């Protein structure tokens, strides 16, 4: 096994974002750190072509591990009382493959950091690997600060079931867009036990109904099992560790194409473009004037190795293009409802 490395999850739909992320990792984390790209699905032609040019980046091809997580998550979803409801009440990404990121727990690295593909790495991650000397899971997000009624895990039910307080649970609340952990922290037997508890003890109630289909919500549920030791940089006693990370929520300062928290110029681990679609980024990279916060930083890393392809000027889409997109979006929504 290899001592440490990075994982991300991607397919051709997020090609532009993947390229930008890989370039940012190479520049800001280290050019020699190994990276594995976990396949979201089989649409990988562009991804495979890109990886040919990167000596330290490979496709994760342990399909046994991937399908183990597919089966586990699908069985949890199918056992939920809402699984047979009308498709009108489900989000479009229900039964997608975002959960395949958790195959990282079955990968080659003894210690690893996972980045969502819609991110840019902004600094080395030595501090995360150091924390893994003491902790099992390391995060850097603000999910724990959400109002009680907005958390993905249901605090009322879990407090009663586990006989703990809200203060006990708050440090355990996190998302799944960026985390560090260890190989086999959750093994096959753990998943079997979790599935049994989810079904027989109705622990699906531990998630709010608004997030029962969410990979992030499921990860929150999973990481309550076995009481792993969790560290979140946003809860660090060191104020220098506490920074923002969301492109559309936090103010940053650009210094030589590296972003810092505006308050105190504290270095951030990554910027996360969580509220923008892959189509937004594809159009931006084709020269369209798309409203994305910190888009100049994204374009810098996306075209770092091919600056001649970087759009010289961004232009607004024409009226016909906007109408066609609206029609296509409506048609896809109707098709999903009827399928």
Please explain how this structure is put together.
With 339 residues, the chain is of the alpha/beta class. It has one domain (2-338): Alpha-Beta Complex (Spore Coat Polysaccharide Biosynthesis Protein SpsA, Chain A). It is built from 11 helices and 12 strands. The strands form 3 sheets. The protein has a 7-stranded mixed sheet with strand order 3-2-1-4-7-6-8. The chain has a 3-stranded antiparallel sheet with strand order 9-10-11, with no helix packed on it. Strand 9 and strand 10 form a beta hairpin. Helix 1 packs across helix 10 and helix 3 (63-78) runs parallel beside helix 7. The mean pLDDT is 92.
Q: Give the percentage of residues in beta strands.
A: 15-25%
Sequence of strands across the biggest β-sheet:
3-2-1-4-7-6-8
Mean pLDDT: 92
The low-pLDDT segments are none
Here the CATH topology equals Spore Coat Polysaccharide Biosynthesis Protein SpsA, Chain A
Helix content: 25-40%
Outline, from the CA principal axes? globular
The count of helical stretches stands at 11
Largest sheet features: 7 strands, mixed
Radius of gyration: 20 Å
